[in-house]
Design brief:
Length: 164
Amino acid sequence: MAKRHYIPITADVEGVSDNAKALIRKTIRTALEAEGVTLPCEIDVLVTNDRSIKKVNKEQRKVDSATDVLSFPALELRPGVPPAPSDADPGTGLVPLGDMILSWERVAAQAKEYGHSRSRELAYLVTHSVLHLLGYDHLDEGPQKALMRAHEEAVMEALGLGEK
């Protein structure tokens, strides 16, 4: 049997159900598959609150505000180029893709703001983060952002959570 992805999830806030954690894992696996990642990977996920994510954002990015999701890639990958076997940790056999931090408060607020379910918002933010871990970015308002958005939409469709 092929080795599976390792996706530890820590939640330091209330309300993060087993179903929410299962959706996070399913979304990560779906995004990796959509991006052609066949090697077993590790992504560490923290689900927290606005106060905690604001602190990390200030410490790591010098941005003194809360945000919905932060991504900290472990590797410098290029969009559309999956990690190579040489990227795997020799001790675990897993490719360490990096860390994801989600604000549970933002998931709820943005779901309400955009008029869709928390599940859809959670899956979208997780997809967005996975793509960052795989080298995608949206620093410009042109081609980079459009490419990333197209890949996000493909993953959301694969999950059955596309725009309605």
